Amino acid sequence: MFHTRRYLFILAIFVALPAVAFGQAYVPGEIIVKLKSSPGSKESYAFMGKAHSEKGMNLKGNFSKMGLYHFGIKKGQSVEEALSELRKDPDVEYAEPNYIVTKADAVGFQKTFSTEELQSIVQSQGAASTVWATGGVDIGIDQFHQTKTYASSAVAKPIVAVIDTGLDLDHPVFKDTGAIWTNPNEIPGNNIDDDHNGYVDDIHGFNFVDNSWVIYDDDGHGTHVSGIIMSVDQNILAANLQESRIAIMPLKFLDGNGSGSTSNAIKAIYYAVQNGAVVLNNSWGGGGYSGALHEAIAYAYDMGAAFAAAAGNAAGNNDNAPMYPATYDVPNIMSVAATTDADTLASFSNYGRRTVHIGSPGVFIYSTVPGGWASASGTSMATPFVSGVAIQMKVESPNMLGYQIKSIIFSQADAVAGLMNKVYTESRLDASQAINYSKTAVVDSSQPAYYGAFSQNRELASSLAGGGCGLVGKLYRDSKNTFGDGPPAPQTQTWYILLVVALLVAPVLFAQWLKSRAPENRRRYERFRINSEVSVQVGERQLVGSISSISLGGVQLNTEAMLENGGVVRMQISSPDGKGDTIEVEGKVVWSEAQKAYGVAFNNAPRSALFRISEWTKALQKAG
Questions:
Q1: 359, 345 in Cβ contact below 8 A?
Q2: CB of 139 within 8 A of CB of 130?
Q3: Do 418 and 565 fall within a single domain?
Q4: What is the DSSP letter of 101?
Q5: How far, CA to CA in Å, does 508 sit from each of 58, 501, 503, 505, 515?
Q6: Does residue 217 lie within any of the structural domains?
Q7: By the 8 A CB rule, do 34 and 292 touch?
Q8: Are 56 and 180 part of one and the same domain?
Q9: By the 8 A CB rule, do 418 and 347 touch?
């Protein structure tokens, strides 16, 4: 018989459902673009210049290894207008809104408890684990605690990234166990990006909401999720906490209301794998498909990481109404439904025979929150159990890749009748079996390649038929009037096309010839092809790029950053022979529409620098 608390819980679910249904809201004035050209190519540089000079867009962020760019659009232009324009651009693979996603808890924190109060609750209810204080089902966490061994402190801890609302770094469960990840290449408090990863003072992760190193948890969700991951590592209510076997990397992209943007989610995923995270916990989602987010997860897969994602809390079928990121088909994703203490699907949990993979406890989960402990329910709470098991498997088998971790978790799960035809495995997580199996499993050295279809449906560019300038249209109509209503004969049609081309091109060629003869447009210095790195100082920004041509008057600068036409920059240019010789010059930025690239004209370059350039160019080939 259900307790009174069960009835209150069910009532709360029905009240909460409309509030947790995921929509397709997006950030006004922002878009994400994927280019067809490879990152760093001439075509990508040309698009960046065009985006700035012609479309009035400003670059807010880029993910160079994926060819993705986050832009702010022209003031006064709607997102729909910008997308329509970009989807017709031949350089664009796809363009999409910057969708908004939200945390995936169904019933939030009921009450905050002290450690003593929670210990009393756990003892009185005969809990199956220290955080799942409802009894009835054993998922093997306590058995794992009893049999685990501790690695040497000299062994690097595997890193699990919690992509969420932040973390209470002072909570004893994390502070006293040494569980918080520390960036070994960053010096705290010096306001310098020591490891050159684009983030200043990112000692324990990063806050992408405020673009800050301060990872405070103003919602509590991320701290709660992190505590559940830690509960797999050890009894987090024990009087004497032990040294953690894992490291938690808190990455805040959800704000105090549990809401965040796709672009910041991508930044967090990208940051996580670039900084060594091997398991990514994602207790959030939304209903809008994002090709960019899809690609970010595929990138994490290529890097060998496992990706646990909440299935959602709308009591819906994800096979029919997808919930992202859980429903992407990337092979490292583990889509997690929430189960009850009776091993049935929780009333609020999404399900899906094809797209939701496994069940995990998600009802009345007690865990850490800033300043104490609290209970919450949702697939948000179910997902970190899976992440906690995955990261412990990495402790036991450090070289195991995300694809194999997923396969073992699924194969070692417990089949339960309550999940039949509800999730892919028809099973609920078994922590002990999965972790123990990983201890002796033969590690696969590789995983299957993934070839995802990331592109959005794009509007076709308008046909050439019926287009063209008035002169071309008139000549074509005249040809039809002269030779009949049908299409002209091939020879006549060719003659008219050649005539039209000549009439159009001749004035342009003549004007360019006159312009080239003008004294002010004659090339003062010969240009030479070069392939050298350059460091560019723009105000307080430090950029990195390359140079494709150089003369005594200036350089052609290739950079993915947007520069102000007419702005002054300071550059350090490396010698083309790679011997470490550099020069430092100042110059004025000039956008070249013809070259689709930035040029920098030197401003009173020192003679020593000009001499070095003269020496360099003796061995270089002239540029056209």
A1: yes
A2: no
A3: no
A4: E
A5: 32, 11, 9, 5, 10
A6: yes
A7: yes
A8: no
A9: no
Asked if residue 394 is part of any domain, the answer here is yes
Asked whether the beta carbons of 332 and 309 are under 8 A apart, the reply is no
Same domain, 244 and 170: yes
Residue 305 buriedness (CB in 10 A; 0-12 / 13-18 / 19+): buried
Burial 364-389, CB ≥16 within 10 A → b, else e:
bbbbbbbebbbbbbbbbbbbbbbbbb
Question: What is the number of domains present in the chain?
Answer: 4
Six token digits for residue 100: 């908004």
- Cα separation, 107 vs 380, whole angstroms: 10
Shared-domain flag, residues 561 and 588: yes
In this structure, the answer to whether residues 242 and 388 fall within a common structural domain is yes
What's the one-letter identity of residue 299? Answer: Y
pLDDT digit string, tens, across residues 471-484? 333 333 344 343 33
Q: What does the pLDDT look like over 518-573, one tens digit per residue?
A: 544 445 677 778 888 888 877 656 777 888 888 878 888 887 666 665 667 788 88
Domain around 535: 528-617
pLDDT of residue 567: 67
State the chain's maximal CA–CA distance in angstroms.
Answer: 99
Which among 68, 101, 134 is the end of a domain? 101
φ, ψ of residue 177 to 5 degrees: the values are: -100, -5
- Strand runs labelled E in 170-324: 206-207, 247-252, 259-261, 277-282, 284-285, 306-310
β-pair partners for 92: 35
Catalytic center residues: 164, 221, 380
Domain of 394, CATH number, reads 3.40.50.200
Q: What is the pTM of this model?
A: 0.72
Q: DSSP H helical segments within 365-489, as ranges?
A: 379-396, 402-411, 431-440, 470-483
pLDDT single digits (tens) 424-434:
999 999 999 99
Domain boundary among 40, 73, 101: 101
